Amino acid sequence: MKLFVLAAALALPIAAHAQTAPVLGGTYKVESHHTLAQFSVNHFGFNDFFGVIPDATGTLVLNPAQGLAGTSLDVSLPVDRISTTNAVLDGELKSADWLDAAKFPTIRFVSQKVEQTGPRTARITGTVTLHGISKPMVLSATLGGSGVNPMTKAYTVGFSATGTIKRSEFGVTKYVPYVGDDLAISITAAFEKAN
């Protein structure tokens, strides 16, 4: 998930829409109001159906002096906040038949390595814990921008990231293969500098 890391390592100015500030080192906290994870799965071969998980929490650490090796990411998503805009389906996804929010309340991603793949892109290798099972996961990330948020005055970095996991590997097997095993994940995230 961490491309801003890339810019931090290279000390490059970021040409964002209204922001052109270099990425600063330090510890960042997830800005939950503007961070959202989306997941999609194929439905009986007819179409891809998706939902979202808001209210992420977590931290990002950037250390430009250490380059990408100085970056770490630890982000969690609350399973009970899953939303597909369909209350019945939301309830099913949170139930013991699917993600079991009562027993496994969070989905967590912790990075282990960040590698630069382009001027504004990175490959983040880490571990995702879902439904009580931990497996490797790779995210392809793109830096959005960095600078002072004009409304909150907080120094902020943002990025987008994508990845795919097989839900059956995490014990979430309901209706496989009719409802797809591959779970595509898309994330848009903002982090505010804490120190």
Please provide a written account of the structure.
It contains 2 helices and 10 strands. With 195 residues, the protein is mainly β. Strands 1-4-5-6-7-8-9-10 form an 8-stranded antiparallel β-barrel. A hairpin with a 3-residue loop joins strand 2 and strand 3. The protein is globular and about 50 Å long. It starts with a helix and ends with a strand. The N terminus is likely disordered.
Mean pLDDT: 89
Flag low-confidence runs: 1-18
Shape: globular
For the largest sheet, list the strands in their spatial order.
Answer: 1-4-5-6-7-8-9-10
Derived from helix and strand composition plus strand pairing, the structural class reads: mainly beta
Q: In percent, how much strand structure appears in the residues?
A: over 45%
Computed over alpha carbons, the radius of gyration is 17 Å
Number of helices: 2
CA distance, first residue to last residue: 20 Å
Say how many strands there are.
10
Please summarize the sheet with the most strands. Answer: 8 strands, antiparallel, barrel
Helix percentage range: under 10%
Helix and strand element order: HEEEEEHEEEEE
What layout of secondary structure does this protein have?
Layout: H1 4-10, E1 26-30, E2 36-43, E3 47-53, E4 57-62, E5 72-78, H2 87-94, E6 106-118, E7 121-130, E8 133-148, E9 155-166, E10 182-193
Antiparallel strand pairs: 1-4, 1-10, 2-3, 2-10, 4-5, 5-6, 6-7, 7-8, 8-9, 9-10
